[in-house]
Amino acid sequence: MSRALADKNQAAADVAEKQVVANAKQIAGSIEPFYGKAATDQLFKLLAGHYTAIKQHAIATNAGDAAGAKKAIADLTSNAKEIAKFLS
């Protein structure tokens, strides 16, 4: 995804994003038999937030936006903590 963004290849970035979303849905769905639909939805939301922060970091880095990259890292770290809390 970040390579596609750096190359300004929107079609490749779109394909990569669809793959990431499909993967996140599969991961989140894997817990549904044990924890239910609400847990699946929450995990998917957290995984989507993680991807969003990664994407924002790639966009900011490619644009030379140090402040944006720093904010994306902060968002990523916060989201990772939320994922850890959810999984524990």
Structure, explained:
The model has no long low-confidence stretch (mean pLDDT 93). The chain has 5 helices and no strands. The radius of gyration is 14 Å and the shape is flat. Helix 2 packs antiparallel against helix 4 and helix 4 (37-63) packs antiparallel against helix 5 (66-87). It has 88 residues and is an all-alpha fold. The protein has helices at residues 2-6, 10-29, 32-35, 37-63, 66-87. Helix content is 89%, strand content 0%. The chain starts with a helix and ends with a helix.
The radius of gyration over CA amounts to 14 Å
Number of strands: 0
- Approximate strand percentage: under 5%
* Count of separate DSSP helical elements: 5
Contiguous uncertain segments of 5+ residues: none
Structural class: mainly alpha
Helix share bin: over 70%
String of helices and strands: HHHHH
End-to-end C-alpha gap: 29 Å
Tell the overall outline.
flat
* Largest sheet descriptor: none
Overall average residue pLDDT: 93
Task: Give me a quick take on this structure.
The protein has 88 residues and is an all-alpha fold. The chain is built from 5 helices and no strands.
Topology at a glance:
Blueprint: H1 2-6, H2 10-29, H3 32-35, H4 37-63, H5 66-87
Helix pairs in contact: 2-4, 4-5
Comma- or semicolon-separated keywords:
88 residues, mainly alpha, 5 helices, flat
